[in-house]
Amino acid sequence: MSEKKVAIVACTGMGKALGTVARQVAYKVVEELRPEKTVLICIPSMAANVGEYKDQVKNYPSIILDGCVERCATKVISENNGTIRGRVFLPQLVKKYGLKPGPRTDIGPEGEQLVAKIAEEVADQVDSLLQ
Amino acid sequence: MSEKKNKVAVAVCTGMDQALATVARYAGYHVLEKLRPDTTVLLCTPALLGGVQEDIDFVKNNPALIIDGCEERCCEKIVKNSNGKIQGIINVKDVLKGHSDLQPESRVKLGPKGMKLAEIVGEIAAKRVDEILEAGKA
């Protein structure tokens, strides 16, 4: 874990469409936009002591994608002594871009556009953190 | 509150790593929204970890059915740690063994085969929900 990377943490919540959006944003950043510079954190695995996620959130700066006001991802990473360096609150970005996702099972074209825009912001944050 | 007695809390792994976690996620939605909307509540695992009261109450007041994605069984461990009353466990990986032609495309997009697998897991879960509630009446 010597190379510097950014840990991307999505809330992955089940209740709301923005949980699905957060998940898709994380995949877009980690798989398409900044694959060499990021690692994807799996909250349930971390909580169950599976994999290296606890070490990754301690050793890498984290960007958190929270889907709702409960901010569960932020709480979980804080409780695991994570180094939070960026926080993205998705309801705010829904207002900013005026794009409303469809339901949680299919976020639809506007949801996809929202994912793309938020992912670009997150990718920029990744670059800033690694400068 | 009748809800406490008559509903099953469906908990899915919500994992990010594997496509089978995405299958578990859609299986959970299939049960909740289409197959058993009146007899289930959807447990949000991250919310449970984040201390959201609604989800703590779901675990406290309802029997739980787990839909895990793989052999790590993260969701089962999390619900157990929260003193959940687990009365059923389904593992997507086990279901896939009987439907090896239904490999999901990726963790981002399941594709038609992956969605079909999610529906099958959902149907298995719906039957288990009925069994749990029937056993609770005895």
Question: Which helices and strands occur, and which strands form pairs?
Answer:
The complex is a heterodimer of chains A (131) and B (138).
Chain A: E1 6-10, H1 17-33, E2 38-41, H2 43-47, H3 53-59, E3 61-66, H4 72-79, E4 83-89, H5 90-97, H6 108-130
Parallel strand pairs in A: 1-2, 1-3, 3-4
Chain B: H1 2-6, E1 8-12, H2 19-35, E2 40-43, H3 45-49, H4 53-61, E3 63-68, H5 74-81, E4 85-91, H6 92-97, H7 111-137
Parallel strand pairs in B: 1-2, 1-3, 3-4
Helix pairs in contact in B: 2-7
Task: Assign an overall shape of chain B.
Answer: globular
Main pleated sheet of chain B: 4 strands, parallel
Structural class of chain B: alpha/beta
What gyration radius of chain B follows from the Cα positions, in whole Å?
Answer: 14 Å
Q: Enumerate how many helices of chain B there are, as a single number.
A: 7
| Biggest β-sheet strands, sense, barrel of chain A | 4 strands, parallel
Strand percentage of chain B: 15-25%
Features:
heterodimer; A: 131 residues; alpha/beta; four-stranded parallel sheet; 4 strands; 17% strand; B: 138 residues; 56% helix
